[in-house]
């Protein structure tokens, strides 16, 4: 149970947060559409970067003979699948729209996290699994 709470609960809670934010009606920060676009799309990149990192941490906690490259690929597809399912979910929310464009923007955050993790995987694995907080 402790392993679940330590490793799997954070990405689950983050996905619940993303889902609940997607369930809200559309809001805006500015009267200017371009500013709203930049702000909200930046949030997409950040939230999916974080989700990838949380998923990577959880998946890499599985004690099996999964290679790090496989963990990266599994994390990539799992996070991308969630991005697609969230956009699909938004098609059913009044004032919201699910778009391929948003999946592409989510994929930017996922790709940045993938590349960061790929080049820092040894340090990250050590940090994620040897650090006690």
Automatic annotation (TrEMBL):
Transmembrane among the record's keywords? Answer: yes
What residue ranges are annotated as transmembrane? Answer: 7-22, 34-54, 66-84
The reply on keyword Cytoplasm is: no
The source's superkingdom equals: Bacteria
Q: Output the Pfam families linked to this UniProt entry.
A: VanZ
Q: Boundaries of each VanZ-like domain copy?
A: 25-116
Q: Could you list this entry's UniProt keywords, alphabetically sorted.
A: Membrane, Transmembrane, Transmembrane helix
Recorded hits in NCBIfam families, A to Z, give: vanZ_1
Question: What is the designated name of this protein?
Answer: VanZ-like domain-containing protein
Q: Which organism is it from?
A: Candidatus Roizmanbacteria bacterium CG_4_10_14_0_2_um_filter_36_9
